[in-house]
């Protein structure tokens, strides 16, 4: 820590919803002193507690005590040079230049706002302006200290941190706790002192499946001020954020890979540069759930445009609780007919189509059709799909080759992840390195061939291993090799869309293992989970739109003939406020059950195009894994649709809709329309719902009498 001194310059920037403020002192040290909603920005953080907007550590710079990425030695050497504000495509960009004079490093930090969305996107670029190589060991995309001041007597009871847990079969589960419950408490240091505790909450991921433990997000709420912040790291590889105390304040730093957690460092020759992965930060008046309103708008704003963003075609996929990766021509024909009968518009043949043997896990990679499964040729299946009025789709796992595949011996060494002289074996598959020209050439040819030969309009890209910390081929560190691959893979996806702009590509990684902002900025539809139980899928379905827009969230709808009516309706409702991904035993349902699915899909098609502009709401709060009742809503221009699930507990629940407080509201049961349901609208802004059976679910429409809800709060 350096002693504070007089402020000589103030930079105030943002839009009508979110703003930040930075100061420059007499020693040219830049500090961010405010970040929050524009109408509730608050007082500036004292200079003694504020930090710069980027944390930097170069090899040879002094480390602080402890493992935390704050007040690093490189950061302390940075000095402000200039700033520039420019208008860009309906928004604004702030660029700040700082220099690490002793090492000849230039740091260009850029913040961008789009329209009036309450989100700031942050990225930094480090340039070697010196005469000798520089090794970067850590550089953040975002850094701010001053969210909390321990001088406030109520801080321990009013400040909460929300962490998004995300695991196989149990995705999108936000757990919000007070800071002392996370181990952050006031140990007695003072604002003007030199010391802080060495405690931090560090959340991150290592490898090629970035969301197998957590979403690359976090959120902080100040209940006393009525303000919340949320951040998302937009990267498809290793990432990390941390929160800790800094003297009497609380800081957050966030970014992509680093040396300490991910074995990443990179070397810049003179004139070379390195750019961090983007981090987006939202700030709102309200609770944590409110932050997903501007994040939803922001995600739509930065996403690569595709017709599917607005069309929201209904997809049938024959994997989940269905053919389970064992397709044959004989098995597929009745499934295709049933999919068309209930209103599917796309049909995806899932895994197994390429293997003559049942145990194909470690032999994948050629991506040619099985002659045993399809003796008359695979095209017969796709012809049947088109004849049934659907677009043909196919599953593939383009990033791996099985260890027993003959192709594993044909591709060059640099086509694979290699560490310490050996190929990386991920659960019986080799990880392909998309920096390799041989990999790009091969996979371009594979995808182009499949689309041309089978007339495909839909692809599902799955990914079921983790390549670990990275590769030491053509890189100065394993983590640097991984980052290069991550970025090369995204560039390959971009080029695929350029060549095949009408083809829809669904992203998947063992369900929700790749629900990161970089992937979601490219794909119009995302697999959310591999959960097989519709009851356990409820909190996943209700929570998925914390990670992605509702029009991207593919939720399994997999009915079975043995389901009761309530179970069937619940299973269907799971998917109706996103992208219902049909599967299950559809061809085994009786006529009455098929009619129920068909009527729900017809209903969905009546409002699906409005989902692309709707905002998410949670009238019972964000869903908990074991909650007896869950509810998730979408606010449209003229009404609110809400899915309500009961898994147990009391027969009745009260849902909060503060946007409708004081209005007369018409409540309509949309699905299932013929089931017993009691509802009472309370003018204070809540809906009482009684469901006599558990488990069960309902979909309602709420419309303010004589008006829509567009005049109510939208962020």
Task: Describe this entry's structure for a reader.
The chain is of the alpha+beta class and 715 residues long. It folds into three domains: 7-302, Beta-galactosidase, Chain A, domain 5, CATH 2.70.98; 308-401 and 435-470 and 486-608, TIM Barrel, CATH 3.20.20.70; 617-704, Immunoglobulin-like. It has 14 helices and 41 strands. The strands form nine sheets. Strands 5, 6, 7, 8, 11, 12, 14, 15, 19 and 20 form a ten-stranded antiparallel β-sheet that branches. An eight-stranded parallel barrel has the order 21-22-23-29-30-31-32-33. Strands 34-35-36-41-38 form a five-stranded antiparallel β-sheet. The longest helix has 22 residues, at 478-499. The protein is globular and about 80 Å long. The relative contact order is 0.09. GO terms for molecular function: alpha-galactosidase activity. This is Alpha-galactosidase. InterPro entries: Aldolase_TIM, Alpga-gal_N_sf, GH, Glyco_hydro_36. It comes from Salinibacterium xinjiangense. Pfam families: Melibiase.
């Amino acid at each position: 820590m350096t002693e504070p001194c007089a402020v000589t310059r103030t930079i105030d920037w943002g839009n009508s919803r979110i703003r930040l403020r930075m100061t420059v002192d007499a020693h040219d040290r830049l500090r961010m002193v405010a970040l929050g909603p524009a109408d509730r920005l608050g007082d500036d953080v004292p200079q003694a507690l504020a930090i710069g907007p980027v944390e930097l550590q170069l090899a040879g710079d002094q480390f602080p005590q402890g493992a935390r990425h704050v007040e690093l030695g490189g950061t302390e050497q940075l000095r402000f040079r200039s700033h520039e504000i420019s208008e860009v495509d309906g928004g604004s960009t702030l660029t700040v230049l700082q220099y690490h004079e002793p090492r000849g490093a230039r740091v260009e930090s850029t913040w961008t706002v789009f329209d009036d969305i309450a989100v700031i996107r942050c990225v930094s670029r480090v340039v070697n302006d010196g005469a000798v190589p520089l090794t970067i060991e850590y550089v953040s995309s975002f850094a701010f200290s001053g969210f909390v001041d321990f001088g406030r007597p109520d801080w321990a009871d009013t400040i909460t941190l929300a962490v998004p847990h995300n695991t196989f079969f149990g995705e999108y589960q936000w757990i919000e706790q007070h800071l002392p419950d996370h181990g952050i408490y006031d140990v007695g240091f003072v604002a003007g002192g030199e010391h802080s505790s060495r405690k931090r909450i560090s959340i991150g991921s290592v490898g090629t499946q970035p969301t197998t433990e957590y979403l690359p997000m976090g959120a902080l709420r100040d209940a006393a001020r009525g303000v919340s912040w949320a951040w998302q790291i937009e990267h498809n590889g290793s990432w990390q954020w941390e929160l800790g105390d800094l003297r009497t304040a609380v800081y957050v730093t966030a970014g992509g890979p680093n040396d300490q957690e991910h074995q990443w460092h990179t070397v810049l020759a003179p004139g070379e540069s390195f750019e961090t992965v983007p981090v987006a930060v939202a700030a709102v008046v309200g609770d944590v759930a409110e932050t997903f309103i501007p994040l939803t708008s922001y995600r739509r704003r930065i996403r690569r445009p595709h017709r599917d963003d607005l069309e929201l075609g209904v997809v049938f996929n024959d994997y989940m609780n269905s053919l389970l990766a064992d397709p044959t021509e004989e098995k597929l024909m009745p499934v295709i007919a049933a999919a068309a009968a209930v209103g599917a518009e796309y049909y995806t043949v899932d895994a197994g189509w390429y293997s003559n043997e049942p145990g194909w896990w470690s032999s994948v990679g050629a991506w040619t059709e099985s002659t045993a499964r399809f003796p008359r040729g695979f095209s017969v299946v796709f012809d049947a799909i088109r004849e049934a009025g659907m677009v043909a789709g196919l599953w593939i796992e383009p990033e791996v080759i099985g260890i027993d595949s003959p192709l594993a011996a044909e591709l060059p060494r640099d086509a694979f992840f290699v560490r310490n002289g050996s190929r990386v074996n991920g659960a019986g598959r080799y990880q392909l390195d998309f920096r390799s020209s041989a990999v790009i050439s091969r996979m371009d040819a594979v995808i182009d061939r499949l689309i041309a030969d089978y007339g495909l309009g839909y692809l599902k890209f799955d990914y079921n291993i983790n390549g670990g910390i990275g590769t030491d081929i053509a890189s100065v560190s394993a983590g640097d090799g991984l980052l290069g691959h991550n970025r090369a893979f995204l560039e390959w996806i971009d080029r695929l869309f350029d060549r095949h702009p009408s083809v829809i590509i669904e992203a998947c990684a063992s369900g929700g293992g790749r629900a990161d902002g970089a992937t979601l900025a490219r794909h119009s539809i995302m697999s959310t989970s591999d959960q097989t139980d519709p009851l356990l899928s409820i909190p996943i379905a209700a929570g998925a739109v914390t990670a992605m827009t509702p029009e991207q969230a593919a939720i399994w709808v997999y009915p079975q003939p043995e389901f009761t009516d309530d179970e069937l309706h619940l299973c269907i409702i799971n998917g109706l406020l996103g992208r219902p991904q049909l599967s299950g035993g559809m061809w085994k349902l009786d006529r009455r059950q098929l009619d129920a699915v068909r009527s729900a899909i017809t209903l969905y098609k009546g409002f699906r195009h409005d989902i692309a502009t709707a905002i998410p709401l949670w009238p019972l709060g964000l869903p908990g894994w074991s909650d007896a009742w869950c509810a998730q809503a979408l606010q449209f221009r003229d009404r609110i649709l809400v899915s309500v699930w009961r898994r147990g507990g009391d027969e009745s629940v009260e849902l909060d809709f503060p946007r409708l407080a004081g209005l007369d509201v018409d409540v309509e049961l949309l699905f299932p329309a013929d089931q017993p349901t009691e509802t009472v609208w309370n003018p204070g802004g809540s809906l009482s719902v009684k469901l006599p059976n558990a488990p069960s679910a309902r979909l309602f429409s709420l419309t303010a009498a004589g008006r829509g809800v567009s005049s109510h709060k939208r962020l």
